[in-house]
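1st attempt posting a full record on here, be nice pls
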Amino acid sequence: MSIDPAQIHLDREHQKRLAELAEKTGRPWSDVLTEALSEYRRTHSAEENGGSEESFYDAAARLGLIGCVKGRPSDLSSNPRHMEGFGSSDTRTSAG
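the predicted structure (as tokens):
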């Protein structure tokens, strides 16, 4: 059965919660609701797919952590010095 989204109504408590979240985050209520629905879909699709979890990168991107450190290289692999010993079986780190 298909549901017309225009016919979906929130009760007063959910309207209040949505308004509070929108005000707290400074974002339009439609963005807050869209993000909540996306999170719900992500969570439930993981359950449907045998419990596979999101990757660390996906979680960091979702939380806005990618690129959040200022004044540092955006990609450590762009400087060969940072890649010294990467992939070697030697567990010692080089003193730089």
